[in-house]
Amino acid sequence: MSVPTEFSHVTAVAKANVYFGGQVVSHTIRLADGSKKTLGLIFPGKFHFGTDLAERMEIVAGSCVVKLDGQSGTATYAAGQTFEVPAKSGFDIEVGAGICEYICSFIA
After folding, report:
1. How far apart (Å, rounded) are the C-alpha atoms in residues 76 and 94?
2. Strand partners for 39
3. Whole-number Å distance between alpha carbons of 106 and 8
4. Considering the entire predicted model, what is its pTM?
5. How confident is the model at residue 28 (pLDDT cuts 50, 70, 90)?
6. Domain spans of the chain, in order of start
7. Homologous superfamily of 10-107 in CATH?
8. Mind spelling out the 3-state secondary structure of the chain?
């Protein structure tokens, strides 16, 4: 599966979602089919996110190290790679250098 480079026919929410004092910033887009995604940037640091819905994280640029809640190991993801997070769960994500760009899809 390749990571999308653009989305057509969407509604973009102008107000940013800002987390961790601006270290993680995303914007929400709504697609024509009613689904929602966020497009974001993660600056260097280590952050924990909780999930309500299941999520698919697609890395557009940069890289990150991820540890899913309940797992002992970590995995590194770079541009073009994807990982999924179960609903009602969470994950630690760490960016060592540069900026990690991502697309977050909320999945059923």
Report:
1. 9
2. 27, 103
3. 18
4. 0.93
5. very high
6. 10-107
7. Jelly Rolls (2.60.120.10)
8. CCCCCCCCCEEECCCCEEEHHHCEEEEEEEECCCCEEEEEEECCEEEEEECCCEEEEEEEECEEEEEECCCCCCEEEECCCEEEECCCCEEEEEECCCCEEEEEEEEC
d(CA 87, CA 56): 11
Instruction: Compute the distance between CA of residue 3 and CA of residue 9 in angstroms, rounded to an integer.
Output: 18
d(CA 90, CA 103): 16
Is the pLDDT assigned to residue 1 strictly greater than 90? no
The encoded tokens of residue 31 equal: 């697609």
Tokens standing for residue 98: 């540069």
